Known about the structure:
Layout: H1 11-35, H2 42-49, H3 53-60, H4 63-77, H5 80-89, H6 94-122, H7 127-153, H8 163-173, H9 176-185, H10 190-205
Helix pairs in contact: 1-2, 1-4, 2-3, 4-6, 5-6, 6-7, 6-10, 7-8, 8-10
Amino acid sequence: MALVKRTYRSPRRQAQAASTRRDIAAAARRLFVADGYGATTMQAIAGEAGVAVQTVYASFGTKRAILFALLDQIVTDADFARLEEETRAAEGDPRGELKARLAFGSRLYAGAGDLIRVAQTAASVEPDLAAMVREGESRRRRATAALVHSWRRAGALRHDLDEREAVDLVWALVGPDVFRLFVVERGWSRKRLEQWQFETLERQLLR
């Protein structure tokens, strides 16, 4: 009877590997933001993280994979679960649902606006990344369309407003570019922007 060699995974070693991976991702993010995605090398990431370049390759494989991992994490970091909980609690209350969506957008762009800009810039030279950015915007628009359609079904949307136009308004005003212009460039507080967005969209969309 042949003996099957069992692989032993040390919890301590797994924890160390996860910690190293987080350190590498954080170092890459700092360099992507400071120097640009294109100018950042795997060697530079290794130096910033304080590890050998072979460790960076072993952990992620490619620079693109590091950026993808960072982008995958941003929705979790913005507490998407909280958005789902608040949306369920506000079901049937369009104004409550809108406030929950605005608060999530504010958390997301405050925590990841710099990384989103890196991705948008890098997308011009990375076809796979460009596709990921387009898909991200498509998902955001589909979620917006579903929300607005629920308002129409509930009779909360203004009767004189085309539903597609309503989706355009929410999708545009709750996007990363508006957050950057008002909060980053003009120094508005997040709460002030959320209030302006709410008042504007309530006035334009809801009965």
